[in-house]
Design goal:
Chain lengths: 82, 308
């Protein structure tokens, strides 16, 4: 089924997830999605959106760690353990 | 008061490929639910074959011919990714239109106050020249036109609470202010139309609901937008595109309605029909793909129609 890519959402990198999400939104808006698959595709979009939001949140936290660590000089990226 | 139930065995002969959600078992589930003693008073009428003139009021002859000749000798013919025909599908579609128009006749003649048509295939996605979303002929649009052309009614309101937007019905009446089309539906979802900005000649009212909207959210939207618009329009007949796929268990929708919500909406529309249309309501089955949710919701809807 070309409409529902098999790649698990959690394993997708940000760029790929966002690209697929944009494609889904575009297809839903254009009405290109068959009725019987519309809800599955919408739910895939929801999962992608959540995944993208999580990745962004993680990236944001990482940026904050750099800033916090840059009291004197930036120490580079600290591992995120929370 | 009397409530009609329009049905026909040929609706079970419209077959779809294995695994297709729009399947004959949907009507079997509804028939079983309406077999209970509380529904004994229903006036049951076998739907006649439709009059071609009625269909021609919505679909051009070339389209009807295209659908007729698409009927396969055996197996299935695919009209699009969703929409299939089996050997009996054209006949079933003709009887579905016949059910809708007969229900209008019964209600306007006063032999019944209201009517429910347990039909397949459904209709609200069918545009004048496009079969789609499991739909071949637009039963609701044809019923409204039938009421106007055969019975001289002026204003007809079509209220569509199927979880999917009734793009076909909207297309038919886009520039016809004599018909109000008022719809609640999930957005985003198939078919992608149904934004509030789609207003037609001011006679189209789209009230999209966010995924996850529950019964309280639905009732609020219905009370705030749909009911006042129908009341102000003062229709001489209300047609309901009654899909039950906004039910919480439906596999094709993401709304969280219960059977009681459909009964509530039915009661609210009956109050408006009493005010403007001598109680006249013609309700047509559209979607609804969870057999238990569909049967329970349709039964609650019909019970409300009977209670008055």
């Amino acid at each position: 089924m070309p409409d529902t890519p098999a790649t698990p959402v959690e394993s997708l990198p940000f760029e790929a997830a966002l690209k697929e999400l944009e494609k889904i939104v575009d297809r839903l808006e254009k009405g290109e999605v068959p009725l019987a698959k519309s809800i599955a595709i919408y739910e895939r979009g929801e999962a992608l959106k959540k995944h993208c939001e999580n990745l962004l949140k993680e990236a944001e936290a990482r940026v904050q760690k750099i800033r916090l660590g840059a009291d004197g000089k930036p120490k580079g990226v600290e591992p995120l353990d929370d | 008061m009397t409530t009609c139930l329009l049905h026909h065995p040929v609706f079970l002969d419209h077959l779809t490929p294995p695994g297709h959600p729009e399947r004959p078992d949907r009507l079997r589930a509804i028939a079983d639910a309406l077999d209970r003693p509380q529904f004994a008073a229903l006036l049951r009428i076998a739907a006649p074959h439709s009059d071609m003139e009625d269909i021609l009021a919505v679909h051009p002859a070339s389209y009807i011919e295209r659908i007729r000749t698409a009927v396969p000798q055996e197996g299935f013919a695919a009209i699009d990714a969703d929409t299939f025909m089996s050997p009996a599908s054209f006949t079933a579609a003709m009887h579905a239109v016949g059910a809708a128009c007969t229900a209008v006749d019964e209600v306007i003649a006063g032999r019944a106050t209201n009517a429910f048509c347990a039909v397949r295939p459904p209709g609200h996605h069918a545009e004048p020249e496009v079969a789609m979303g499991f739909c071949l002929f637009n039963n609701a649009a044809i019923a409204a036109r039938h009421a106007q052309r055969r019975h001289g009614l002026g204003r007809v309101a079509i209220v569509d609470w199927d979880v999917h937007h009734g793009n076909g019905t909207q297309a038919v009446f886009w520039s016809d202010p004599s018909v109000l089309f008022a719809s609640t539906h999930q957005m985003p979802l198939y078919p992608g139309t149904g934004a509030p900005s789609e207003r037609g000649a001011g006679n189209i009212l789209n009230v999209p609901l966010a995924p996850g909207t529950d019964g309280a959210g639905f009732r609020e939207a219905f009370t705030t937008h749909i009911l006042p618009a129908v009341d102000a329009f003062a229709p001489e007949l209300i047609v309901i595109s009654a899909g039950f796929d906004a039910h919480r268990d439906d596999p094709l929708g993401g709304l969280l309605l219960d059977a009681a919500d459909f009964a509530w909406a039915t009661g609210e529309l009956m109050r408006l029909a009493d005010r403007h249309a001598k109680g006249g309501i013609v309700s047509l089955l559209e979607g609804g793909y969870d057999l238990a949710g569909l049967a329970e919701s349709a039964a609650a809807h019909v019970a409300a129609l009977m209670e008055g």
